[in-house]
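User: Fold this; C-alpha cells only.

Assistant: Input:
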Amino acid sequence: MIQQFIAGMNACGQMWQVVQRNWETFAPLFTHTTKKLSRNDIRGLFDIKWSPQGSNKRDQEEDTIFLWEWWLMSIENNELDVTLEDILIFVTGADSVPTLGFPHNCEIQFYDQEPESQRVPYSSTCALILYLPRSITEEVVFKDFMQMAIKGSVGFGKV
C-alpha cells in the first residue's frame, strides 16, 4: 500500500520527492498536530450574518456580539469553566480544526427570544452554524446561557 501511495504521488510531477525534500513543510498535512486554540482562532472561524445596518435587530445583534467577544476573552483568560475547544465541539462536532480547514467558515446567526420563554444558544454541526439570541445585554445572562448550552449538550450518540 505504501509503495502504491508513493507511486501515486510521484505520478504527479514527482510530488513524493518534493515532500521528502521539504518534509518539515508537509508535516502538518500528513500528521495530526493539535495546537491550543486562541480567541483569534475562534473569531477567524466565524462569519457573522447581520441584519441590515440601522435596523433595531442589527443593534441587538451588535450587543450580542459584544457579549460574545467578552465571553471569548474570559475563556482565553481561564476565568470560565468552558474552553475554546468546547466551543469548537459544540458548533462543529470536531475537537480540532481539520488540517485543511472546514469546507466553509462557520456562521453566527441570530434568533429572537419567544415571549415568556428563554431559549439557550444552539448549533447545527452539519451546517456549521451557531445561533445566538438577540436582545441579551447582561454579561452574566449571556455567560449562563452559553454555559448551559455547551455544558448541557449531551453530544452525538449519548443519551
